[in-house]
Predict the structure of HIT family protein.
Amino acid sequence: MNSPAPSPTLTVSPTACSTTCPLCQEPGGLLVAQTPLWRVVRVADENFPAFYRLIWQSHVAEFSDLDEAQAQACMRAVTTIERVLRSALSPTKVNLATLGNVVPHLHWHVIARFDWDSHFPNPVWGAALRELNEPAWTRLALALPDLDAQVAAALQRH
Amino acid sequence: MNSPAPSPTLTVSPTACSTTCPLCQEPGGLLVAQTPLWRVVRVADENFPAFYRLIWQSHVAEFSDLDEAQAQACMRAVTTIERVLRSALSPTKVNLATLGNVVPHLHWHVIARFDWDSHFPNPVWGAALRELNEPAWTRLALALPDLDAQVAAALQRH
């Protein structure tokens, strides 16, 4: 790990940056952990509070732009996040996705879903099905800073 | 490859099946290729004709239920499909996702997206943004049976 503790400093190499790509210019969320290959941020989404994003540090568009070792490192980290979410929150399901239609810089969404959440079983990009009476984060088994710390610690160990 | 040619016969072990899970009971699309670990089907979706699904043969819910070797085999196959879509169709973007909120049996969506498609840049699960004047499949660079054959051949080689 280059910088296991949360830090606002990005390790993106300037030569691998696109000057017009927001994920080359900004963290893309609350920085939780990073290595020279990837960073993990938590996304501020009131409907889906346990929403992490693994962002590849270099500006590549597609998962298949990674070589085999990079792809394995990427999915090992994604899987590590998923395991923490399962262990800490016992979600109904974990959703993984890399879309990038709007920002074609490789990033993976890792989202804990619950049968009580606003959209379940719809995808988070689909239609909402219900309104909650309280903020979604209050229904998680763990406070978000503690969850961030567990994700960071697991990524440091993995 | 256990059965590289398209075949309606599933290789799922009965002991790994759930009697109530549709992906344990049915192919889940047009079968394109399979091994003892996974099968690849093409999904009949008129809006997104170049839509493949890798379905894990055993009934597991989450990607992190796979061990390291299984996860690597899974993502190698997903990446192989993505590479064929990119090479054959030059899509604007490829979307990868494993959600499973409705059918919690591990399956990966691999979808070629185009800036002209009905939803782009929205996710396929989001709102449609336009209507096409002709069937989407007519705008692909390749006929779907030929695309299936390229996917099957690549999965056999990979």
Observations:
- Residues 1-8 of chain B have pLDDT under 50 and may be disordered.
- The two ends of chain B are 10 Å apart (CA to CA).
- Chain B has one domain: 14-157.
- The longest helix of chain B spans residues 68-89.
